[in-house]
Design a protein that fits this description.
6-stranded mixed beta sheet, mainly beta, Sperma_CUB_dom_sf, 9% helix, CUB domain-containing protein
Length: 757
């Protein structure tokens, strides 16, 4: 075709089939110079929805415009007519621009059932008329039209189920929520029934089963300007009574996963349990069946569960020893989430009863394949157990209770539930550290934070919300609380007392807010190791000094324990005064995790727990409630070291009557021997036991220094005199008596001074 005047030209190709036929156009080559999306200069307009060939094209639905060099997808008419409108403004047009074939195809393949009145692509299929057949989009495999509303309604008989398998599925994809073109499948006879799923884009291996005898499919395409080249879909359907009956699911707590033949999911009801079994159990299962079991425990901020599976019956014959035909595969690590179903943990077949299994997380998945054989199948009990993510031996009743036995492991770690995530609210957890006879238990906290609305020193009575308590437990069962901790106040290192081989830790949380909790280590030590004990028992004294190891140098950054037991006379108490204090830690900000001083004013009560650069006024001086006091200094291996402490202790008489020395300000009654010993026996702010001694001590010191210096001078002079006299004796014997008397005269005042001193 020659166009010398460069006028635009348009050629119309009209294909008209008979009433029971449709037109299919297939392009074999295509090279139009127009470019998408505008397709200027040269293009082909398509019209595939022409009901009446006599109607002008402008009044018929527009099927799209094509250009460029890519061969277009085939087109199939909705009715008997299809029109191509070729446009060009070239001066010369040759057959090489485009070419193809046309075919008049049978339209019966698109009529899959009873047509719905006043629709172009909606049908109803009855199983008593046709048990199996094909379902496809109106112009498959050609590009489907825009603005379609098609429905396919399947009605079977009672006891039947429908299987719908898509061999090809290609719709415009607009995202996972399918906002443009889509297929919706409902598990029933209309849109009022549960939706199985919505599909778009490209689907592979898509098979859908109805739960009962009916199924409803809806195919929708939007009215839009943009062209698409998607084929639509083609599927095969089948009504049958041989598909798996879902009774084996409804008899248990399982829920059938809609759209599958026999897949089910079981969701925890917080610690619930139940049974799962193979299809048709206790009767033999059918061959060539695949069922999946998704057993999911709880997984949220409050609770995390694991799944325990215990088999009661098992019979799955397999034609191969490797269980490649019939099998039950178990997945314990959540492999289904990463589509790693080939990484199963157990592949079971035969007749031996499998061992009890437990998932590593909140999910356990089973895949049952019957293969070509038949057997009775399996029956198993599942149990959702709380998973606190705490190392240790959990209580068999599923409570938050854990045991750490020395005979099993000498050291290890423990933590709050779900650490490092937040612990649950309204929970009580117990940790038991069970040493052998003669052992002691060492605990060291590496991180600690509980919910506390008020920023304060979180210890003992301050802790009323979420808290942790530590107890020493004697072999008799008697318990002694070491302390209650909360907020950021981490417990100091713990070394149980001699004779105490069990320690209990208790975590309690309320129902309001949570925090990240704690992590700690434990270790069991024989009581005769080098770590215990650097302190001593003190009695029959009235005062003394306590020093941390190495003081005034720093204490060693390693595990060490010092216990001082001070006992004074009956009807007396003990006053402990810290003269110097520097222990790593900060009671309010992070507690005393590396090193701690514990003072027991009353042995039956929790001690005071001290650390930091300095002490508050109420803890600089501590008065016992009886004649016994215990002071403990414990450091952990993770300690960094500091100067330590210096403290004095003094026996203080009870009552108002004092027959010894009574301090002027504190009114303490202390022993006379406590006077003038350069120690604050009356307390840190009362110097009355030293005031009257300061001047005397000053004179004595100067006198001693002066006498010592004078004595040294006299000694030197005397020796020189003796030497000089010996020399004179050789020359003048008459001088001997004179020099012999001088030492006696000089010695007289020296002896007097020494006697005075």
């Amino acid at each position: 075709m020659i166009n010398q005047q460069n006028y635009s030209r348009q050629c119309i190709y009209t294909f008209i089939a008979t009433e029971d036929e449709r037109v299919q156009i297939t392009f074999t080559h295509f090279a139009l110079r127009g470019a998408k999306p505008m397709c200027n200069h040269e293009y082909i307009d398509l019209y595939m929805e022409i009901e009446d060939p006599s109607v002008e094209l402008i009044r018929t639905p527009f099927g799209g415009r094509i250009c460029g060099r890519n061969i277009p997808v085939s087109r199939i008419s909705m009715y008997e007519t299809l029109v191509l409108a070729f446009y060009t403004d070239r001066t010369r047009v040759t057959p090489e621009l485009f070419g193809g074939t046309y075919e008049f195809i049978d339209a019966a393949q698109y009529v899959m059932g009873t047509p719905t009145p006043n629709t172009v692509c909606s049908y109803t299929v009855y199983s008593d008329q046709k048990r199996e057949g094909d379902m496809m989009s109106p112009t498959y495999p050609g590009v489907y039209p825009k603005n379609l509303r098609c429905s396919y309604n399947f009605f079977g008989k009672r006891g039947q189920r429908l299987r719908l398998e898509f061999m090809d599925f290609d719709l415009l994809y607009g995202g996972p929520h399918c906002p443009f073109d889509f297929v919706k499948i409902y598990d029933g006879e209309s849109e009022e029934y549960p939706l199985i799923n919505t599909y778009c884009g490209q689907q592979r291996n898509l098979v859908v089963f109805s739960s009962s005898e009916n199924l409803y499919v809806k195919f929708v395409t939007l009215q839009r300007n943009a062209d698409n080249s998607n084929r639509g879909f083609k599927s095969a359907y089948e009504f049958s009574e041989r598909f798996v009956s879902l009774d084996f699911i409804s008899k248990t707590d399982g829920e059938h996963i809609r759209g599958t033949q026999c897949d089910q999911k079981i969701l925890s009801k917080r610690g619930s349990s139940g049974l799962v079994c193979s299809p048709n159990y206790p009767y033999p299962y059918h061959p060539d069946v695949i069922c999946r079991y998704y057993i999911y425990g709880m997984q949220d901020a409050q609770r995390l569960e694991r799944v325990r599976l215990k088999f009661e019956k098992f019979e799955i014959p397999s034609s191969t020893p490797t269980c490649t035909d019939g099998f039950l595969r178990i997945y314990l690590q959540g492999q289904e989430e990463r589509y790693a179903l080939d990484e199963f943990d157990h592949n079971l077949c035969g007749q031996d009863l499998p061992q009890s299994l437990k998932s590593e997380g909140p999910r356990l998945v089973m895949i049952f394949k019957s293969g070509s054989t038949q057997g009775q199948g399996f029956k198993a009990q599942y149990l959702f157990e709380a998973d606190y993510q705490v190392p240790g031996t959990a209580s068999p009743n599923g409570s938050c209770q854990f045991f750490y036995r020395s005979e099993s492991q000498k050291k290890g770690e423990f933590n709050s539930p779900h650490y490092p995530a937040n612990y649950p609210s309204s929970i009580q957890c117990e940790y038991y550290f069970l040493g052998l006879e003669g052992e002691q238990v060492n605990l060291v906290f590496n991180y600690f934070k509980t919910k506390m609305d008020v920023e304060a020193y979180g210890y003992n009575e301050i802790c009323q919300e979420d808290w942790l308590e530590i107890y020493e437990v004697w072999p008799s069962g008697r318990e002694r609380k070491l302390g209650r901790y909360c907020g950021r106040t981490a417990p100091g290192p713990i070394m149980s007392a001699l004779g105490v081989d069990t320690v209990k830790v208790l975590l309690r949380t309320d129902d309001k807010n949570v925090a990240s909790g704690f992590t700690a280590t434990y270790e069991f030590f024989p009581a005769d190791t080098r770590y215990v004990d650097f302190g001593r028992n003190i009695s029959e004294l009235t005062e003394g000094v306590l020093l941390s190891p190495g003081f005034p140098g720093s204490y060693s950054p390693s595990l060490q324990v010092c216990n001082w037991f001070i006992t004074v006379r009956p009807h007396h108490k003990i006053l402990l005064s810290f003269v110097f204090f520097q222990i790593e830690g900060d009671p309010e900000r992070r507690g005393c995790p590396g090193a701690v001083v514990r003072v027991y004013p009353e042995l039956s009560e929790p001690p005071m727990e001290l650390c930091g650069e300095s002490l508050a006024n109420h803890s600089r001086e501590i008065l016992s409630s009886s004649n016994i006091m215990k002071i403990s200094f414990v450091t952990a291996d993770k300690a960094v070291g500091a100067k330590g402490f210096q403290a004095t202790w003094t026996e203080v008489k009870e009552g108002t009557k004092c027959d010894q020395f009574q301090c002027s300000m504190s009114k303490y009654c202390v022993a006379e021997s406590a006077k003038c010993n350069s120690l604050p026996n009356c307390g840190l702010d009362d110097y009355s036991d030293e005031v009257d001694c300061l001047a005397i001590h000053g004179i004595d010191i100067h006198l001693i220094i002066g006498l010592s210096f004078g004595g040294a001078i006299i000694t030197v002079i005397t020796m020189c005199a003796i030497f000089h006299r010996k020399c004179k004796r050789r020359r003048t014997p008459s001088d001997t008596q004179h020099h012999r008397n001088q030492p006696k005269m000089a010695a007289t005042p020296h002896i007097a001074i020494q006697d005075h001193v």
